[in-house]
Amino acid sequence: EMSSKNHPQLVYMKSENCRQLKTLLNIRRRMVGTRARIILQAKSTLRGLGVKESQRDLKSKNGFARAIYHLGDDPFYEAMIGKMSLESSEETAKIAATEKQIMDLIEQFFSQEYAWLISIPGISFVTAATILSVVDDIDRFQRAGQFSSYCGLVPSEHSSGDKVVH
Fold first, then answer.
1. Is there a contact between 105 and 20 (Cβ–Cβ < 8 Å)?
2. How far, rounded to the nearest angstrom, does the alpha carbon of residue 115 sit from its chain's CA centroid?
3. How does pLDDT run across 33-82, given as a tens digit for each residue?
4. Is the CB of residue 95 less than 8 Å from the CB of residue 35?
5. Mapping DSSP to helix (H, G, I), strand (E, B) and coil, where does residue 92 land?
6. How far apart are CA 117 and CA 126, in angstroms?
7. Residues 148, 37 contacting (CB under 8 angstroms)
8. What is the torsional sign of CA 63, 83, 100, 13?
9. I want to staple 147 with a disulfide (CB 3.0 to 4.6 A). Which of 53, 63, 141, 166 is the partner?
10. b/e per residue, 94-125, with b = 16+ CB within 10 A?
11. Are 12 and 141 in contact (CB under 8 A)?
12. Residue 65: how many CA atoms within 13 Å on its side-chain side?
C-alpha cells in the first residue's frame, strides 16, 4: 500500500487568458525598463555637460525639449538628446499600446475581479493586473489561509542544524 507521500502532487494549470495577461505584463515591464534606461542615459549626458535644471522631468517631450534648450547651441548633443527623446516617446507609445491590450484582456475575462481589486486603496492598474495574472481563479483556494500561503504572506520557519530562518 502506497502512502500519499509517494503520489505526485496535482499542479494547477493556469488558464490561457491568465498566461496571456502575464506575458503582456512581462513585455510591459521590459519596455518600462528600456524607457528608464534611455532617460537615465540622457540625464547622465546632461549632467556631464553641466545641465542640471532640466533633468527633473524627462518622461515627456516637453521635458526633453527643455533639456535641449539648456544645451545652448551644441548640434552634436542636441542631436543625441533629440534621438533619446524620440526613443523615449516610442517606448511610451509601445507601453500605452501594451497597456490597452492588457486592459482589453481584463475587460473581456476578469472585469469583476479587476473592479474588486482596484477598489482596494493602494491597488492600481499594474498591481491589479499582476494579481489577476498570478491568481487566475481564486476559487481554487479552499480557504483564505491557502491563498495567503500561496502568496508567501504566512509566516513560516525553516531550520537546518543550528540555523533557523523565520
1. yes
2. 19
3. 999 999 999 999 999 998 876 556 888 888 899 888 888 889 999 999 99
4. yes
5. helix
6. 11
7. no
8. negative
9. 141
10. bbeebbeebeebbeebbeebbeebeeeeeeee
11. no
12. 4
Query: Is 165 exposed, middle or buried, given 0-12, 13-18 or 19+ CB atoms closer than 10 A?
Result: exposed
Query: Which residue has 482596494 as its cell numbers?
Result: 120
Termini Cα distance of the chain: 36
Owner of C-alpha cell 481584463:
106
The SS3 call for residue 54 is coil
Residue 79: all three cell numbers together = 542631436
**Nearest CA-CA partner of 142 in 32, 30, 12, 18:** 12
Report residue 163's pLDDT band, with 50, 70 and 90 as the boundaries.
confident
pLDDT of the residue at 3: 54
Spell out the residues 6+ positions from residue 53 whose beta carbon is closer than 8 angstroms to its own: 70
**Rounded-to-integer distance, Cα 13 and Cα 149, Å:** 18
pTM of the model as a whole: 0.80
DSSP, collapsed to helix, strand or coil, labels residue 164 as strand
